[in-house]
C-alpha cells in the first residue's frame, strides 16, 4: 500500500512516499526472506528506500527477537521499517526502542473516532508526542475525511493513509 503525505505547502496537495508491504508472521521468521528481498531489489534495480516493511504491533510483541533481527537486516539493506496497528490494544513504547522503526502507524480504530471521542484524540496526541521524542515518524491509518486530516495535522501526525486521502489506484499510474 502506498502512503501519501501532506506537502509543506497545503493539506490539499499530496506526494507519494513509497510502498508499505504488510508482512505475514511467517516471513519474519524466515531467515532467507531478507536475502530474497535484497536479490529482487538488485535484480530489478529498485531503490531500497522505496520499500517499507510493516510489522504488526502484535508480531512485535510475540516474535520480539525475530522482529529485531529482521528489522535490522531490512534497514541495513536500505529499506524502511514500520510498526502497524499501534495503539489499538493499549500503548507500550518499550518494544520500539529495540526495533528502531522508521514509522509508527497509528491503528485505524483510534483514528476513525478521533473527531468524536476525546479519549481517542488524547491517545493519538500522546502517541505522536512520544514517537517524535524517540525519533519515529507517525502515520495515521484509515483517514476518511478532510476534517480528520485537519485534526491530525493539528496534533502533529506526520503522514496519513486512507480513503480520505486517496482512493486505491492502479500501480501503472504511479511514478
TrEMBL record:
<protein>
    <recommendedName>
        <fullName>EAL domain-containing protein</fullName>
    </recommendedName>
</protein>
<dbReference type="InterPro" id="IPR001633">
    <property type="entry name" value="EAL_dom"/>
</dbReference>
<dbReference type="Pfam" id="PF00563">
    <property type="entry name" value="EAL"/>
</dbReference>
<dbReference type="GO" id="GO:0071111">
    <property type="term" value="F:cyclic-guanylate-specific phosphodiesterase activity"/>
</dbReference>
<dbReference type="InterPro" id="IPR050706">
    <property type="entry name" value="Cyclic-di-GMP_PDE-like"/>
</dbReference>
<dbReference type="InterPro" id="IPR035919">
    <property type="entry name" value="EAL_sf"/>
</dbReference>
<feature type="domain" description="EAL">
    <location>
        <begin position="1"/>
        <end position="175"/>
    </location>
</feature>
